[in-house]
Specification:
- This protein is an alpha/beta fold.
- The protein has one domain: Indigoidine synthase fold, CATH 3.40.1790.
- The chain has 12 helices and 11 strands.
- Helix 7 links the parallel strand 7 and strand 8.
- Helix 3 runs parallel beside helix 12, helix 9 crosses helix 12 and helix 10 packs across helix 11.
């Protein structure tokens, strides 16, 4: 059921650096027609770092690991959002399935991929337990030996509560050149990270040691280069409007993103594009450094 592209399979076979990328960002994270270019730019950033991109999605009854440009273009707004629970159904029903972080982690675990780049991690929704909504990203990260590079936790969520859950699950929350977990659009103001790292090599060495000790996933938070510190009021407004309109579950994130892009005059859209690409590039750098860390650890 899982079909791995030749380039990805060859890289994995020789122990080369590979970075998994999700497709929900392509299908639902940007205005129609723009997501594909964001996906391609993310792949270019991974390649520029010396690693191989492995974009994951469900097409024609198969879970694909590594997509062509034409295949990537099929992930539009009509694609089904596919988390861990949805992979099998999407494949059997031959749906176009755009994978979330959690869905991508399931596939990365099966394929043997150790690194992933994304925009923001899912987590505990604001107001928990009403609604009683916690992203499956957290449980999959807690059991998958993958380091995820993101701009922290999605800012529409309860970030402090999410950080507490990650601690309970034993997931290291590392800050890339920061002591605070980024708030997606904003670089500052988040909870303290469990450790600060200064370089891709240091992050790779920590990942290697964590996995040698039997640990599972790690989160590496990379602050956005252009911090938008005034977005919080818009997020609260978007969430109130989503609630008023009965938007819930998986539909909340794309609704809020669309609201923010529109009401910010495109500022959040530009920031989102930039941080997604930057996270992919850093994931590629850490993946490449991991080869050196694992070699040193065995010597």
């Amino acid at each position: 059921m899982i079909v791995v592209a030749d380039e990805v399979r060859d890289a994995l076979a020789r122990g080369g650096p590979v970075v998994a990328l999700e497709t929900t960002l392509v299908a639902h994270g940007f205005p129609p027609g723009e997501g594909v270019e964001v996906g391609l730019e993310s792949e270019r950033c991974v390649r520029d770092a010396g690693a191989v991109p492995a974009t994951v999605g469900v097409l024609d009854g198969e879970i694909r690991v590594g997509l062509t440009q034409d295949e990537l273009a099929r992930f539009d707004a009509d694609a089904r959002k596919v988390g861990p629970r949805d992979l099998a159904a999407a494949a059997v029903q031959q749906a176009v399935g755009a994978t979330t972080v959690g869905g991508t982690l399931v596939v990365a675990r099966a394929a043997g991929i150790r690194f992933m780049g994304t925009g923001g991690l899912g987590g505990v929704h604001r107001g928990f337990p009403d609604p009683p909504d916690v992203s499956a990203d957290l449980s999959e990260l807690a059991r998958t030996q993958v380091l995820v590079v993101s701009a922290g936790v999605k800012s529409l969520l309860d970030v402090p509560a999410t950080a507490e859950v990650l601690e309970t699950l034993g997931v290291p929350v590392l800050g890339f050149q920061t002591d605070e977990l980024p708030l997606f659009y904003a670089a500052r103001g988040g909870p303290r990270t469990s450790a600060r790292v200064e370089s891709p090599d240091e992050a790779a060495r920590i990942a290697y040691a964590h996995w040698q000790l039997g640990g599972a996933g790690l989160l590496l938070g990379r602050p956005p280069d252009d911090s938008l510190d005034d977005v919080e009021p818009l997020i609260e407004q978007a969430l109130r409007q989503a609630h008023a309109e009965g938007v819930a579950g998986q539909a909340v994130t794309p609704y809020v993103l669309s609201f923010l892009h529109r009401e910010s005059g495109g500022r959040t859209l530009r920031a989102n594009r930039d941080l997604v690409a930057a996270n992919a590039g850093l994931a590629g750098e850490v993946a490449k450094a991991y080869g050196r860390a694992s070699t040193d650890g065995r010597s």
